[in-house]
Amino acid sequence: MVTIQHFMDGRFVPAAGGGLLDNVEPATGRVYSRLPDGDERDVEAAVAAAERAFPGWSRTPAIERCRILLKLADLIEAESDALARAESIDTGKPLSLARSLDIPRAAANFRFFATAILHFASESHATDEAAINYTLRDPRGVCGLISPWNLPLYLLTWKIAPALATGNTAVAKPSELTPMTAFMLAELCCKAGLPDGVLNIVHGLGGRVGAAISAHPRISTLSFTGGTVTGGQIAAAAAPRFKKVALEMGGKNPTIVMADADMSRALPAAVRAAFANQGEICLCGSRVLVERPAYERFVEGFVATTRALRVGDPLEPGVEQGALISAAHRDKVAGYVELAVREGGRIACGGRAPPTLPERCRDGFFFEPTVLLDLPIGCRVLREEIFGPVVSITPFDGEDELLTLANGTDYGLAASLWTRDLTRAHRLARRIAAGTVWVNCWMLRDLRVPFGGMKHSGVGREGGLEALRFFTEPKNVCVSTE
User: Fold this and answer.
1) Which residues contact 181 (CB under 8 A, 6 or more apart)?
2) Among 21, 179, 351, 471, whose CB has the most other CB atoms within 10 angstroms?
3) Which domain holds residue 130?
4) What DSSP letter does each residue of 350-383 carry, written as one string?
5) What are the residue numbers of the active site?
6) Count: domains in the chain
7) In this structure, are 271 and 219 located in the same domain?
8) 156-210 pLDDT tens trace
9) Cα 323 from Cα 316, distance rounded (Å)
10) Helix axes 180-192, 62-78, angle to 10 degrees
11) pTM, rounded to two decimals
């Protein structure tokens, strides 16, 4: 059984207190590795290492930082099979998804930001004939990076890459539920020649390690992806010390299908948006809103497609739906389905654990893809994030009702809109309260664009120049020309 360790100052070390946590494989329900039960002592040691490394790394020429990060991207690609298998075992997601999405994106994150820093130009302004102003972008120091369990390496590298590219050092905390690929990434950092202390990875529970990172007086910058409640706690801990904070949190995203949509594209995309990664993606379209003339036909096709999804051992070829992350999360998802029925909804398909599973997976945390109909407007199931393979389908009449429904939650992360009328698409996209609006597509990502949410979905933006700006501090220099 593998024993994971912290990564600090270029070395692998156990927890200061010596404790270990069990790491459970969701598909089997069995412990398959252990990780350090870190605490504030480990965070303090990691911060000290990051502080020692900061002067040298921040003065390292951008082209050299670029070279090291590109080498790291190459190593991720070379180890993609091992990383994908580890990600599948750790999360319960299908191995095919880890191979096609998670690991390629992790390499792409490093490759993109490694080269982006070479094109991150200063601004300059001439003040009539009296002066020239130019803006420097300095690294902020030690950054705290807290990432979630649903896309572990994908989202951890989404934070590490821009933080390091801009000359910062980092203390990163992966989820205690999915620590394996962060451990493997640390090994690759050593092979890539990343200087000691530039990246430090501390494992452990969020309430101890995450809280210590959030409140640490010498961590200047915090980037968090995870649940809205936890994000609020992090913001509260950071506020008294005026830390710079980016929070990417939950979503209750609408998939909007107009009657004129190309159903041959909209229907399979809506199913994918609902159930990709077992619905455990903040961008999943968990509310499908269908214009009434197309509603009955759409529901029929959606339910039939959902029933055909193959649920099973995530390591087996052809499996489309794996296990949920934990028994507690599976029970939470099941509880929301029960609530939907109490609120007046109807289960069109799913709503239970699969009746048959491979012997290896008999104690795993599985739940069938579930479609809910006839839910009353304003009910909890239509407003609260479930974060599992559960989707509601609701009819609407006209754009005003559509916008009321689409914007009728506390979240505002993403939306997808399906229509042949691009004039309407542009009009609606401006009025939908979401950080990202996809038109006739879903999860089509470009690393150059800003990413983040409105309302309870988050504060700040990641991606592209927004990430480089977030991890740097602007300084204006005014030079008199007289």
Assistant:
1) 83, 86, 87, 90, 106, 152, 153, 156, 174
2) 471
3) 2-249+457-480
4) --S--S---GGGTTS-----EEEE-PPTT-HHHH
5) 248, 282
6) 2
7) no
8) 999 999 999 999 999 999 999 999 999 999 999 999 999 999 999 999 999 999 9
9) 12
10) 130
11) 0.97
